[in-house]
UniProtKB/TrEMBL annotation:
Span of domain Polyvalent protein metallopeptidase: 214-317
Domain N-terminal as annotated: residue spans: 20-158
Protein name listed in UniProt: Antirestriction protein ArdC
Entry-linked InterPro entries: ArdC_N (IPR013610), MPTase-PolyVal (IPR041459)
Pfam families membership: ArdcN, MPTase-PolyVal
Molecular functions (GO terms): single-stranded DNA binding
Length: 574
C-alpha cells in the first residue's frame, strides 16, 4: 500500500496513515445497509467532539479518526491525552504537598496516533531559522524573505477510559462524566440552527445561498452560488443543514479561496475526490454542532473510486483530510462568529430586561491577572542554559527560552495563583504580557514558568471544570461567582423555604464561609439557624434543593399532628 518503505521499515507517519486508511475503508464499507446508503457517517447522538484532556478541540484529520476510534472501541468520553500529560497528574512540584495515588495507563492498552503539523521557517538568503509564531507576526513583505516547510509529526494518545483516572482521581472523572452526560437535543422537522439561518438571510457565507422550491442541491462553479431545496422539503431541519454543509464544503474549493476545484469531467477520479472532501466536511461540521450526516445519495456512486484510492495509497487519506480540515475550519469559523454575535445579543437583551447593570460588590475586576504554572524545572532537570542566561543578567533571553517549555496545554487550576511567588525564596525574574518566570535558589535552584490569564479566563475554566482540585485563589474566584449568581437570583425571586410545620425560612449565600445559610429575618439581618457547605461542582438549584432536603429530615420542622413523607420543593417569594 502506498509509497515504498525504507530498509528501516515504515515511518510513524506511514503507520498512522495506513491505520487511518484502513479505518476509512471499514467505515465506508459499513455505510451500506439493507435499505441502501442510509447509515450516518457517525453514530447518531452518541459522541461529542473529541478534545484533549485540557479541553482543547482536535480538528480535521485527528477529529475524524478519533471519532471513528471512539465508535469502534466504545469510548463514551471522547477525551484523549499523551503519556506525558498523564504523568503530569503525578507531579507535586510543591513541598509538603499531599501524595496522591499515581495516575497511569492501564496494562495492555495501546495508544492511537494523532498528527500535528509543524512548520520550519528558513530565511532564503541567510538560512537562519525562526519560530513559526514569530513568522506569523511578520508583515507580508517580510514573509517573502522566508521559505516555509510544513511537516506532519505523529503523537500517540490514550482515551481517558484507558487510564485509571476513574479510580485514583474520582472527582476529576466525575466532572468528565457530567460534561458528557448532557441529554441529546431532540430535533424535529421544525429544528432551526439560528447561526446558519442568519448566515443565509444576511448573505454572510462566501457565496450566496439560495433556498428555493425544487429537488436539487448543488454548488454552481460558474455562478458561484449554492442552490438548496427549501427547508420544508426535507424530512427534518437537521437534514436540511447537513446537506447544506455538503454544498458549502464544495464552495470552499473555489478559485481564489482554497483553490481545490479544478476543471474536471463529471465522474472523473478528481471529481470523486472532491465529493469525498465535501462529504467529510459536512459530516465533521454536522457532528461539531450536534447533528447527524448521512451519506448523500449522489456521493454513493463514487464509493468504489474512494475505496480503490484508499487501498492503493494511504497518502490519499492524508491529502484528502488536510483539505477537509481547511474546508471545515472555514465553515466553523463563519458559523462560530455568527453564533458568538447571537450569544452577545441575547446577553445584552437579558441585561436590558433585568434593568440597569449593577456594580455588585465583589464583581470581576477586568485588570486582575492570574498566574498558571506550566513548567516546574528542578535541579534534576537540565537547567544549565537557563542558569547561564540568569547569571549574565540576560532575562529577556531567559524568558524567551523559558517559553519553549510551555507545551500548549490549558490551565491547571491546582497551580493557578493571583501572585507568581508562592514559596519562601521565590524571586520573579521577568514577565511580559503573557508569561512570567520565577526562580528559587534553594535546593539546587528551581525555575517555574507561568502563563498569565485574565479573571474571565479563570471563570470560564471554573464553569467548565469546577474547583475540585483548585488552588485557594481559584476557589476565591468561584466564591465571587456564586455570590454574584445568588445576588442576581435574589433580585428576581428571593429563595424562601416553606416547611411542613408551616414555618418559613430565608436563605442566603455566605461568601466568607462558602455556605448556604438558613434562618429567619430580624432587624439586624438573617438570624442563621443552619449552614450548608456550598458545592461548586453542582448548580445553584442543586445546592438549594440539597439544603431543603436536609431541613426536611430535621424533627423541628415536621408537622406536629401528622407525620408525612414530604416531597422536596422550594417556595420562592417574588
Amino acid at each position: 500500500m502506498g509509497k515504498p518503505y525504507t530498509k528501516e521499515g515504515p515511518s510513524a507517519e506511514d503507520k498512522a496513515l495506513g491505520l487511518f486508511a484502513d479505518m476509512m475503508i471499514e467505515r465506508i464499507q459499513s455505510l451500506s445497509g439493507k435499505d441502501g446508503w442510509k447509515k450516518p457517517w457517525f453514530t447518531e447522538g452518541t459522541l461529542q467532539w473529541p478534545k484533549n484532556l485540557n479541553g482543547r478541540e482536535y480538528n480535521g484529520m485527528n477529529a475524524m479518526m478519533l471519532l471513528l476510534h471512539c465508535e469502534k472501541e466504545g469510548y463514551k468520553i471522547p477525551r484523549f491525552c499523551t503519556f506525558d500529560r498523564i504523568q503530569q497528574f503525578n507531579k507535586t512540584g510543591k513541598k509538603n504537598e499531599e501524595q496522591k495515588p499515581r495516575v497511569s495507563v492501564l496494562k495492555g492498552e495501546h495508544s492511537f496516533p494523532v498528527m500535528l503539523t509543524t512548520f520550519t521557517v528558513v530565511n532564503k538568503e541567510t538560512k537562519e531559522h525562526i519560530k513559526w509564531e514569530d513568522y506569523k507576526l511578520l508583515s507580508q513583505e517580510e514573509r517573502e524573505k522566508y521559505n516555509v516547510y510544513p511537516k506532519l509529526q505523529t503523537y500517540h494518545v490514550f482515551n481517558v477510559a484507558q487510564t485509571n483516572l476513574k479510580e485514583v482521581r474520582p472527582e476529576f472523572w466525575e466532572k468528565l462524566e457530567q460534561e458528557y452526560s448532557m441529554p441529546k437535543v431532540e430535533k424535529d422537522e421544525q429544528f432551526a440552527f439560528e447561526p446558519v439561518d442568519r448566515m443565509i438571510a444576511d448573505n454572510r457565507w462566501i457565496c450566496p445561498i439560495k433556498p428555493m422550491f425544487g429537488d436539487s442541491a448543488y454548488f454552481s462553479i460558474s455562478k458561484n452560488e449554492i442552490v438548496m431545496p427549501e427547508k420544508r422539503q426535507f424530512k427534518d431541519g437537521e437534514s436540511f443543514y447537513s446537506n447544506l454543509f455538503h454544498e458549502m464544503g464544495h464552495s470552499t474549493g473555489a478559485e481564489g479561496l482554497l483553490d481545490r476545484i479544478k476543471p474536471a469531467t463529471f465522474g472523473s477520479a478528481e471529481y470523486a475526490r472532491e465529493e469525498l472532501v465535501a462529504e467529510l466536511t459536512a459530516a465533521l461540521t454536522a457532528q461539531r454542532y450536534g447533528m447527524t450526516k448521512h451519506l448523500k445519495g449522489d456521493s454513493a456512486a463514487y464509493l468504489k473510486s474512494w475505496l480503490d484510492s484508499l487501498k492503493e495509497s494511504p497518502q490519499f487519506i492524508k491529502t484528502t483530510l488536510l483539505d477537509v480540515k481547511k474546508a471545515t475550519s472555514m465553515l466553523t469559523q463563519h458559523i462560530d462568529k455568527i453564533a458568538m454575535e447571537i450569544d452577545q445579543e441575547k446577553k445584552a437583551e437579558q441585561k436590558e430586561n433585568v434593568g440597569k447593570e449593577e456594580n455588585m460588590e465583589g464583581s470581576m475586576d477586568d485588570g486582575r491577572v492570574y498566574y498558571a504554572s506550566v513548567a516546574y524545572l528542578q535541579s534534576t532537570d537540565d537547567t544549565s542554559e537557563l542558569d547561564k542566561l540568569k547569571d549574565r543578567g540576560d532575562y529577556d533571553g531567559l524568558l524567551k527560552l523559558a517559553k519553549d517549555y510551555y507545551d500548549g496545554n490549558g490551565m491547571d487550576e491546582e497551580h493557578t495563583y493571583r501572585k507568581p511567588c508562592q514559596n519562601r525564596g521565590d524571586d520573579l525574574l521577568i514577565e511580559d504580557k503573557d508569561f512570567a518566570v520565577v526562580y528559587n535558589g534553594s535546593v539546587g535552584g528551581t525555575y517555574e514558568v507561568f502563563l498569565k490569564h485574565t479573571e474571565q479566563e479563570v471563570r470560564d475554566h471554573i464553569t467548565r471544570y469546577g474547583i475540585g482540585r483548585a488552588s485557594e485563589d481559584v476557589k476565591a474566584v468561584a466564591r465571587e461567582m456564586t455570590a454574584e449568581e445568588f445576588s442576581e437570583l435574589a433580585q428576581r425571586k428571593m429563595p424562601i423555604f416553606q416547611m411542613p410545620n408551616g414555618g418559613l425560612l430565608n436563605l442566603q449565600y455566605n461568601k466568607d464561609k462558602d455556605s448556604l445559610d438558613v434562618g429567619t429575618v430580624t432587624n439586624t439581618g438573617l438570624s442563621v439557624k443552619h449552614s450548608f457547605p456550598f458545592s461548586h461542582d453542582h448548580s445553584m438549584d442543586a445546592n438549594i434543593s440539597s439544603a431543603y432536603e436536609q431541613l426536611l429530615d430535621m424533627e423541628e420542622y415536621q408537622k406536629e399532628e401528622v407525620q408525612e413523607e414530604h416531597v422536596a420543593k422550594s417556595a420562592f417569594r417574588r
